[in-house]
Amino acid sequence: MKQHKSLIIAGLVLLILLILAYANHFDNGFHFDDSHTIQENVAIRKLSNIPEFFTNADMFSASTNHRGLRPLVTTSLAIDYWLAGGLHPFVFQLSTFLWHIGLCIMLFFMYRQLIGKVSTHRWVPFIALMGAGWFGLHTVAAETVNYIISRSDVQSTFFIVASFLMYVAYPQKRKYGLYILLAVIGVFAKETVPVLPILLFFYVLLFEKELSLYAVFRRSNIKKVLGSIWSLLPLAVAVAGTQLYTLSRMSQASASHGMSNPLGYSWLTQTYVWFHYFRSFFLPFDLSADTDLGVISNPLDWRIIVGVVFVIALIITIFKTSRQRATRPIAFGLIWFAASLLPTSLVPFAEVMNDHRMYFAFAGLSLSVVTALGLLIIKRESFFTMKQHYRYLIAGAFLIIAANAFGVYKRNQVWDTEETLWKDVTEKSPDNGRGWMNYGLTQMSKGDYKQAVKIFTKARDLNPGYSTVYINLGIAYGGLKEHSKAIGNFSMALRLAPGDDAGYSYFARYFLEQNRFEDAKNMAEKALAINNRSYMAYEVLMGALQGLNSWDTLKQTASAALQLNPGDPKALQYLQAAQQRKALAPLAKDVANAVSVLNYINISLEQYNNGKYEDCINTCKQVLALDPNNADAYNNICAAYNMLKEWDKAREACQKALQLDPQHPNAPANLRWAIEQKL
């Protein structure tokens, strides 16, 4: 009874530490691929789309280059959007965090089951709890938990562990196939679940058939091996069939991993990557959201030598620890570590290494490490129980957990904003052109176009074939009013990636800002021909059609945009303009101010969506310095003050917006909210 109480107290302490470690992450914004899978993905803004998420790969992302079928992820994002009432990161971050906590709880039970099969020692539950706590508070886990779209790793690992635990803990209920159902659900999160039959195969051999890996190759054990395979055949067929379905739907989209030289990728570079991941479990000091490691083609490179030696040592250790019953959890955890890395090692990806890939792998490695430490401690039980030396154990465990928790807290600070994240990437991965480009975007968002051009140029020099960097150079040069350079860079982006709608969309927006409506219309139509779900292209096209007074076409386009994103205020405004056959908001005459005002308004909206309401207000004040009669700026100030519950200031701003534009689509509702709340 006393031991049970101590276990509960220890578990609650770990839960409190977990919450405290991640307390500064809930307001962290959207990053990187979150832009096209969440922020620009209008599909997640309607819960009624959920059934289609399971059949239509186009609804996973607004980008044609990143589409796939991960309906569990997209469904959870749609629910978050609905609960948050918009793109408020807190709810999205909280959702991922809750999945993470649920996984940690299951890992405790899984570790206790596995270690308990080889030891009945009274300390086994505490060893299992240490393993789950170490995983949950590991500094590396912050790279996955903070990156919202990477909840795919959290969810797929969650269902893999749930299925595995169901199989292990309730062998008498296997005939009902619930563990198979859990695995199938996991396939809808990420393409890592096919690893599960491999894990269960080795579990059956090591723990149920009680065979060492040496014994697997004996002729006398062939029937046991084949029997193990046969028992897992229903799971393998169900997982494979579901995975083939998702891949077949993905083939209809234009997603691409984009990496050549598979031999160099898989058999050379990945050996070093495995070593890096293993080392990071113990020394997680050089984490980067976007590493700059490329394919290592020289087999004599020291990193390849280290990697090959590590993989050989890993295999030897797995075989040796599988011999004795007591050390088989160590062997199994190492098998888990290796098997979990196979999908990203055998199939070439554009990035040879990503720190969030360690999340699934560490679920197994944590088991190996705590089992090894636990066996050493149990052997010296007499020392630790003598004169209450167990305090050393508690202190040591707390030191490990606290150090990782502090690391989590610091990594959360890095993931706070786009600027803090990409500045860290440029420092940790200085040869990463994409990292420099994203850091340049943070400078451009502040209106510092000169600095942005300098950074984008560095990114271009590091990665001259990267079309996106030319798009951003075009935007930045446009902000500097160097229009020939802007057009040149946009044109280069189109030459490098003629099948990517983003280049056409941003070029169209540039032309719209210059009041070149016909050019904007042509570019936007080309973007929509490639990607008919590009809401940005729709917005530009509607603006261009209004500028050309093409009211009938504008009406059709606005109606199509509303089908894609029902209730969108901009589309409704354009539809009203088409019906009245006149522009509802005059276009700014000063081109330079038009560029700055449009950028600042977009920035303020992003800040509002990210819950940074004071920043939104300050940005809108910069708009008013350029355009004192900008109704959108006053409306955004009103909305931000509403969220801050400063009702008088909100009412004043909305009244000003309506004085400037009595037909403003959003100001009346914001004003009504401010008045009602004040009452």
From TrEMBL:
This is Tetratricopeptide repeat protein. InterPro entries: O-mannosyl-transferase_TMTC, TPR-like_helical_dom_sf, TPR_rpt. Keywords: Membrane, Repeat, TPR repeat, Transmembrane, Transmembrane helix. The keyword Repeat applies. The chain crosses the membrane at residues 90-111, 123-142, 154-170, 177-205, 225-245, 265-282, 302-319, 331-350, 356-378, 390-409. TPR repeats lie at residues 433-466, 467-500, 631-664. The keyword Coiled coil does not apply.
